Amino acid sequence: MKALKYIPLAAVALVAAPSLGLAQDAATGAPAEHTSYILTTLLFLVGGFLVFWMAAGFAMLEAGLVRSKNVTMQLTKNIALFSIAAIMYWLVGFNLMYPGDGWLIDGVLGPLFAMTSLEPMGVAPEETALDYASVGSDFFFQLMFCATTASIVSGTLAERIKLWPFLIFVVVLTGFIYPMQASWDWGGGFLESSFGFMDFAGSTLVHSVGGWAALAGALVLGPRLGKYKDGKTNPMPGSNLALATLGTFILWLGWFGFNGGSQLAMGTVGDVADVSRIFANTNMAAAAGAVTALILTQVLYGKVDLTMVLNGALAGLVSITAEPLAPSLFLALVIGGIGGVIVVFAVPLLDKLKIDDVVGAIPVHLFAGIWGTLAVVLTGGYTGEATIGGQITGIVVIGAFAFVTSLVVWFILKAVMGIRVSQESEMTGLDVAELGMEAYPDFTKG
Length: 446
Hints:
Elements: H1 7-22, H2 33-65, H3 71-97, H4 135-156, H5 163-183, H6 190-195, H7 203-221, E1 228-229, E2 232-233, H8 241-260, H9 269-301, H10 306-321, H11 329-352, H12 361-374, H13 388-416, H14 423-428, H15 430-435
Antiparallel strand pairs: 1-2
Helix pairs in contact: 2-3, 2-4, 2-8, 3-4, 3-5, 4-5, 4-7, 5-7, 5-13, 7-12, 7-13, 8-9, 8-10, 9-10, 9-11, 10-11, 10-12, 11-12
């Protein structure tokens, strides 16, 4: 009897199929304008809400990897940073990132404080520009990438940063730093036009930028109390590895929207085939990163380290993000696997340098992001024309800009209002000291 309820759906599909066929131009097989516009808009909307779900992934990952006395603070930071990013990207970021003909400095600086406007309500498709997608869907999709950049910073600086200075930094990062540097490639700026830099979905433009901002903050903020003492690194285990694992799977799921939506078109058979290719490569890279970290930790430490495996999967995802379309499945496996290697060796390297990264975001997003951007030359990118010189130029220019501007903002915040909680507050936990509430009031320990 269950099968009977699908008969109406099948009938609808049979009726709709000829209509979609008629939407193709009889001479060329190309889609009609309306079809392309609708399907690409749908891609942005579906991809966008998948990337939005990554906000929950970051929140769960960070909540699981911090100590129980700081969980509420991490959750507060994550919902606040996303909300701030949404407002700042509307107020400044979207048009700064995609200036069109409105550059203030050609190829370098777009218009400042040019607020985003949507299409008028009820306007028929034939009255709009049909060669792309709706403004609302494009804005919504691109906003999610902006918010992701801020999420990366949150985890690194956990357990010792004040709430309001962090949120002020998010205002600057999402409103100005992120969209400005992204305009140099995705907005048609000088890195794309003069150097041929390619970053399909943001290994550098999103992930490395978040990593550079996190590194600058970690250097100014300093490590947690007791993390490095008497020449030793003292482990500070997270509160809930189940939450951390859930967060990783949510991020993995959201990444299909992150990379798949970055195809930016779904109006032809070729576009849809490419989106499916991106999904498959993205998944392969994540799996390879996880398995590589699984094996390496067993070999190096005699036991598997779950947190390394989780970050290995994320590093594989970051690594493939710069070019998820062009590689074969085997090459995607290699690219993602190297991302897993990077994490396993970079995490202890940061500890040797006494750079305290609570969740491992710098190895995952910065180091693996650099690797993924360089790996584009293995295929030449989706145009086949990527060069090592162009990729290195983009990495260096964007890295220097993101790190220096973030460092300046962190130093200003430190001088004006202070960015670190007191020793007493840090020992008590930020949940009580900063917020007056605990995530686990019946179980919290120091």
